Amino acid sequence: MKSISLMTFVAGVALSALTGSAFAAGDPAAGEKVFAKCKACHQIGESAKNAIAPELNGIDGRAAGSVEGYNYSDADKTSGITWSEATFKEFIKNPKAKIPGTKMVFQGLPSEKDQEDVWAYLSSFGADGKKK
Q1: In terms of DSSP H, where are the helices of 24-128?
Q2: Rounded distance between C-alpha atoms, residue 45 and residue 42, angstroms
């Protein structure tokens, strides 16, 4: 009986650690502050619209260059990127290096913490612009 209880406890701790790490990478509140650098071009939230750049609702799992109504560069449309934390961080570190020919003029976020925090903020919005 004790070995089953111990196994259950160990499995629970391992599952908690795995689940926690999946969500603990960034701080959405800190990411909202860093996102202030992005607001000149991008919008997010329930009233978000395409502007100088595409709106960013529902970015997690979305194909790059696919927001309806936004005129992307050919490089963005054909990049083959599906947005995830890893692809976003690689892109936002240096957009022109990740997608040569992108229309995005932003120089990038070199800080890994800023990248993680912005991703945590962006991925907290569903495709409808509501917080998940």
Answers
A1: 28-34, 74-77, 85-93, 95-98, 112-122
A2: 11
How open is the CA angle 66-51-62, to the nearest 5 degrees? 25
pTM across the whole model: 0.80
**What 3-state class would DSSP assign to 44?**
coil
- CA angle in degrees (0–180, nearest 5) for 25-30-35: 105
DSSP, collapsed to helix, strand or coil, labels residue 9 as helix
**Nearest by Cα to 34 from 104, 127, 106, 126:** 106
Q: What is the pLDDT of residues 25-82, one digit of tens each?
A: 899 999 999 999 999 999 999 999 999 999 999 999 999 999 999 999 999 999 999 9
Q: Scanning the structure block, which residue is given the tokens 């990127």? A: 81
What tokens appear for 65 in the block?
């260059």
Residue 66 corresponds to which amino acid?
S
Identify the three-state secondary structure at position 65: coil
Q: Domains of the chain, with CATH numbers?
A: 26-122 (1.10.760.10)
Residue pair 57/70 in contact by the 8 Å Cβ criterion = no
